[in-house]
Amino acid sequence: MSPFPTSTVLGYPRIGPHRELKRALESYWDGRATRDDLDRVGAEIRERTWRRLAELGLEGLPSNTFSMYDQVLDTAVLLGAVPARYRDADDPYFAMARGTEQLAPLRMTKWFDTNYHYIVPEIGPDTVFELDPGKPLSEVREARALGYETRPVVVGPVTFLLLASALDRLDEVLACYEELLSVLAAEGVAWVQLDEPALVADRTPEELAAVRTAYERLGAAGARPGLFVATYFGETGEALPVLAGTPVEAIGVDLVRGGVPGIDLPGKTVVAGVVSGRDVWRTSPERALAALAGVRAGRVTVSTSCSLLHVPYDVAAEPRLDPALKERLAFAEQKVAEVVALSRTAFPSSTAGLVPAAPSVAPSVAPSVAPSVAPSVAPSVALPAPVAAEGRGPYAERAAAQAERLRLPPLPTTTIGSFPQTGALRAARAAVAAGTLSREDYERRVEAEIERVIRLQEGLGLDVLVHGEPERNDMVQYFAEHLDGFAVTANGWVQSYGSRCTRPPILHGDVGRPSPITVRWAAYAQSLTGKAVKGMLTGPVTIVAWSFVRDDLPLRDVVFQVADAVREEVSDLEAAGVKIIQVDEPALRELLPLRRAAQDDYLEWAVATYRRATSGASDRTQIHTHLCYSDADQILAAIDGLDADVTTIESARSGGRILGAVKAFGRGLGPGVYDIHSPRVPSAAEVEELLRATLAVLPAERVWVNPDCGLKTRTYEQVEASLANVVAAARELRDAL
Ligand SMILES: CN1c2c(nc(N)[nH]c2=O)NC[C@@H]1CNc1ccc(C(=O)N[C@@H](CCC(=O)N[C@@H](CCC(=O)N[C@@H](CCC(=O)O)C(=O)O)C(=O)O)C(=O)O)cc1
Ligand SMILES: N[C@@H](CCS)C(=O)O
Ligand SMILES: [Zn+2]
Fold first, then answer.
1. Most buried of 289, 444, 535, 552 (most Cβ within 10 A)?
2. Pocket test for ligand 2, best of 712, 713, 719 (most atoms within 8 A of CB)
3. Are both 20-363 and 399-476+519-736 of the same fold?
4. Torsions phi, psi of 185, nearest 5?
5. Under a CB-based contact definition with an 8 Å cutoff, are residues 479 and 473 in contact?
6. Considering the chain, what percentage of its residues have pLDDT values greater than 90?
7. Could you say which residues bind 5-methyltetrahydropteroyltri-L-glutamate here (predicted)?
8. Which residue has its alpha carbon closest to ligand 1 atom 3?
9. Distance, CA 420 to ligand 2 centroid (Å)?
10. Nearest-CA neighbor of 254 among 328, 307, 207, 202?
11. Shortest CA distance to 184 belongs to which of 135, 217, 229, 244?
12. In Å, how far are 346, 434, 581, 619 from 623, measured between CA atoms?
């Protein structure tokens, strides 16, 4: 078996440096491009990636890290786990990802504690696992034709089955992985990477036994490539000795979030993730080299802590960033250079397998790995003492005051905030940035859009209106642009799901709110209608979760700083006469630590930050919150602790599985009745069915009727048709109450 290369990355961005894949996908979905056009763009992105990684001097090139939509969906296809109902669709892959007119898509949820979403495999009694190795095989061949030998990357069997809640199918799935190993060996592949991030969370003895079974069995497979099991997103903990006891040759550990393994791994290669794949800060060579030197293994390889999927491509594509900040940043390209430089520094004399020379390796590294710069921020403000919901009375009193003021019908209908972001609006924002459209003209267009959205909602008969968020490029970036302490990027796109990307802001200094951010638009929208219009804010946890955050302060201190800025905005909205204020916290679940031991502490401070942001509101002001994920079961007590008067939550996309869990909620609740992630328009009958399911578990006087999430990714055509059906269903049931 050839030795594992001395430098590698666990994966790379794949949307394209200029979001080429996004555009190609959306053209294909809209019928403006053929499948061949789409495939050509995919091939160009893969080729560019391999060439670039090789040019940067990286030795171990991964393949099969490209995906047309999602790597978990790719793994389901690899294993033949395509539910029968999708098999006859024009394009079964995208039918599973996005749905069709006839078929709802598969569930989608967050990939561990990231803002990336994967498609949840559906495995049932009818699932027959059957290997289809076409994708990894063709990527190996494609790279080879370009002159590159690669290491295919596949989601590992244990993580795949845990994500699908189907660990009982291990035996069948392992047969497919054995066959895959044999196919790859026949192709001359030297190493395969099996991603097992699930091993950094707490695992039961049965789950650890499954890890042992899986890797003993795969290790015993006849002709096979070297097995590299990659764990990431935290400390591997109790799964590490289990893996070490199996025949796998290489184990990946995250040395950014986890410590240096406390055990000797003499017969193994440790693929040491010392360059973070989760932040944008340059790596401290001293810290990285010390970590490498501490690993006690047969051989050590330098790597990233996880795939670089979660960071943008290239700092060089950011001409407008402050040079002093830019100095401190590393995106994917720079991180690859860091990996290479660290590997050359740690293992100066050889390419053949290596134990770092000595812990005192001098950090005489290539310029790309300059010593980390101390954060150039002003001294932090003192951490404010957490406050309870001071100022706000008990829910019953608040509810009475609000009912009196708002006079809403039973089963009130509303939306989550955003309306479609049109091409014209996006182009107008780009024109302002380019200096070809004046801010005044832009603001007039935003006002015109707000008026259109208000009239549309009035026409549809919605009860609580929104202004539609047309002035926002993104619910986090927009606030970052108006707060001190943040920088935003021009091209720092990171994939969130499918073709959808965000540019996570860079939170590098102390946070402050120099002036009101949303009040002008909220007040304008309210001036157009007699119906209540919700003021719309993003909560402190979410603003921080969806940014790249300074690492010199505890996260909670940073979130409290943001909470104070949100609190000021709440107060200004109230003063402007806004009667309902929604403070979204869709990332509350996402930041939940993967290990149980750290969860209670997190939830306690996260809830306290929300209450700090909202508790200045009077009892007459109705506070809404919104969370868009279905696996909220673990944090229901925390959601309750937010003490919002109304909570809207994803439910439609996940078939109402949240309903049983939320029945204990004592305040207003709107489980979504319209899956906005799919272009599909739900019928009124479907919406009615979901509403009936809600009414079966919750008292009608507390039920709200709303979509799963905001409508910004949909078209007006889809939204008008869908919301008409939502309103019709609500009226039907309201009349029957
Ligand atoms: C609600 N969700 C969000 C998450 N994270 C966020 N940060 N924001 C969210 O809303 N996580 C969970 C969920 C689901 N995730 C997403 C993520 C991304 C989107 C989305 O719709 N993204 C848009 C891009 C949004 C944006 O920044 N728009 C800018 C720039 C638009 C643009 O592409 N401009 C063009 C030029 C203009 C033109 O001529 O068209 C360019 O730069 O080339 C803006 O509007 O100004 C996406 O399309 O990916 C949704 C949910
Ligand atoms: N208010 C936001 C929440 C998304 S999670 C929206 O409607 O897009
Ligand atoms: Zn949402």
1. 535
2. 712
3. yes
4. -65, -40
5. no
6. 89
7. 22, 115, 500-501, 546
8. 475
9. 11
10. 307
11. 135
12. 55, 38, 5, 9
Q: Is 501 annotated as a binding residue?
A: yes
Token representation of residue 266 = 């003499």
- Any idea which architecture 399-476+519-736 has in CATH? Alpha-Beta Barrel (3.20)
Classified as helix, coil or strand, 304 is strand
Q: Looking at the structure, give the CATH architecture of the domain made up of residues 20-363.
A: Alpha-Beta Barrel (3.20)
Reported as a single tens digit per residue, the pLDDT across 298-352 is 999 999 999 999 999 999 999 999 999 999 999 999 999 999 999 999 988 654 4
708 Cα to the center of ligand 2, angstroms:
10
* 684 vs 601: CA distance, rounded Å: 43
Segment 661-692, tens digit of pLDDT: 888 788 999 999 999 988 999 999 999 999 99
DSSP output for 540-552: HHHHHHTSEE-SS
Q: Each residue of 682-705: b (16+ CB within 10 Å) or e?
A: bebebbbebbebbeebbeeebbbb
548-584 residue pLDDT tens: 999 999 999 999 999 999 999 999 999 999 999 999 9
Burial class of residue 541, CB neighbours in 10 A (0-12, 13-18, 19+): buried
Ligand nearest to the CA of 677: 1
Max CA separation in the chain (angstroms)? 80
- Told to judge if 677 belongs to the known catalytic residues of this protein, a careful annotator would answer yes
State the Cα–Cα distance between residues 111 and 197, nearest whole angstrom: 10
Q: Residue 473 Cα, ligand 1 centroid: separation in angstroms? A: 6
- What is the C-alpha to C-alpha distance for residues 378 and 235, in angstroms, rounded to an integer? 32
- 467 labeled binding residue: no
| Dihedral of alpha carbons 538, 541, 546, 548, sign | positive
Residue 615 sits at the vertex; the CA angle it makes with 611 and 616, to the nearest 5 degrees, is: 145
| CA dist., res. 284 & res. 405, Å (int) | 56
Domain locations in the chain as residue ranges: 20-363, 399-476+519-736
